[in-house]
Design brief:
The protein is an alpha+beta fold. It contains 16 helices and nine strands. The longest helix has 26 residues.
């Protein structure tokens, strides 16, 4: 990979890594914006980057974002295309467009950023695609903010990526040759004893905040290894899409990250399906705060399974008694009107998981037909989430034969 800055400019360095990770966090917490643009204040971006807001930090942020915007990256056969599962060559800038405006008319220093300066930052679509696919992960920005030194922050980021991978169990320990590790962390051509002294305060800080449990050196000379033992695996990698789904339903950024970490992607998907199923019943008129209810469904799933069963039964009975009129629209006349079961409702409950191939779309349509005919319930449909094709086929066939 090669990065090239304009004449008389510097390539990204120092705090730029923190800012880039802040942008990754913003993309995820804002629900993967369709236009690849995150919109937030400078203060919010600094907080997501783990940087304490200050007048100096705002100046540094402005310079950092301009470096990320104007530096060109040329990657040869080493950029992973998640949609096609292959490596390819790309040329891009991380930031495609940067806009800033003050939300007050009282601006005394034109061009000077302050806490409430509003930013609109459009990122490269290749970067967004890899965030969406989980190849570039958000970090625990609250823990990142507790770290005081650049080297410690760099070490935390690097070790986090080694520990956590989406869809895999977090590793308990990690070992690497010290000379390789030094080069990876930017300590080029330094004596190994100097590297160890430089790393010591960073290791101590990561142990103090509860990220690492132990750091141990083994071997001598060029064969010396550094062994890391992680203090906890509770902050395992979070599927960015799970956080994005919660954000789209109005769950706040920090809360979305906490819930996704605590319950995992499949639980989040199921909770969303339960919420969407409740919205297909007469109970929808009682749902005033979707974000709050979604959080409660994650925390008390059994309670809401019972609630959904009762709500669906009551709604079906009301449908059977209601006399259809020409005036009733497809969505009903009001929030409290009784709406017939529709195939589209089944598609919503299934979260589009059966829309990817012709075979799975055929299964989706068969399940939807059973739902409309009231032969299966919303909970039955929810049970199809994350099922492999063969398992879904067997379940739907059993329903049809019942």
């Amino acid at each position: 990979m090669r990065c090239t800055a304009p004449r008389n400019a510097l390539v990204p360095h120092g705090v730029d890594n923190d800012v880039l990770l802040g942008l990754v966090n913003a993309v995820v917490l804002q629900g993967m914006p369709q236009d690849d643009t995150v919109r937030l204040t400078t203060r919010e971006l600094l907080q997501l980057s783990g940087i304490t807001p200050s007048a100096r930090a705002y100046r540094n942020l402005q310079a950092s974002l301009r470096r990320l915007q104007h530096t060109a990256y040329d990657v040869t056969d080493s950029w992973y295309d998640g949609s096609r599962h292959r490596w390819r060559s790309v040329s891009f800038s991380l930031i495609v467009r940067l806009g800033a405006e003050d939300n007050t008319a009282d601006v005394t220093n034109a061009g000077q950023w302050r806490a409430q300066t509003l930013l609109a930052i459009r990122l490269d679509d290749s970067l967004i695609s890899n965030i969406r696919a989980g190849h570039i992960l958000p970090l625990d920005f609250e823990m990142l903010a507790r770290l005081s030194q650049p080297l410690t922050r760099n070490l935390f980021r690097t070790l986090s990526f080694q520990r956590d991978q989406v869809g895999q169990e977090p590793v308990l320990a990690f070992a690497v040759p010290l000379n390789t590790w030094a080069t990876h962390l930017g300590m080029h051509e330094m004596r190994l004893d100097t590297v160890m002294r430089a790393l010591k305060p960073a290791h101590e800080e990561l142990i103090a905040i509860g990220f690492l449990r132990e750091v141990e050196y083994r071997g001598r000379g060029k064969t010396r290894m550094v062994h890391y033992t992680f203090a906890s695996t509770k902050s395992a990698a979070v599927d960015p899409e799970a956080i994005a789904v919660l954000a789209r339903y109005g769950v706040s950024g920090g809360r979305a990250l906490t819930l996704a970490q605590a319950y995992g992607s499949e639980a989040v998907q199921r909770a969303v399906s339960v919420l969407e199923a409740l919205l297909q019943t007469d109970y929808r008129s009682k749902i005033r705060n979707r974000a709050g209810m979604l959080s409660d469904i994650l925390e008390s799933p059994d309670k809401y399974d019972t609630l959904l069963t009762v709500a669906e039964k009551t709604t079906d009975e009301a449908r059977a008694q209601a006399k259809p009129t020409q005036e009733t629209s497809e969505e009903g006349d009001s929030e409290t009107s009784t709406v017939p079961r529709k195939a589209r409702s089944a598609h919503v409950i299934l979260l589009g998981q059966y829309d990817d191939t012709a075979e799975r779309r055929e299964l989706r349509d068969r399940a939807a037909a059973l739902y409309v005919a009231e032969r299966v319930s919303s909970l039955d449909l929810i049970g199809l989430l994350n099922k492999e094709t063969a398992a879904a086929q067997a379940q739907i066939q059993a329903w049809e034969q019942a």
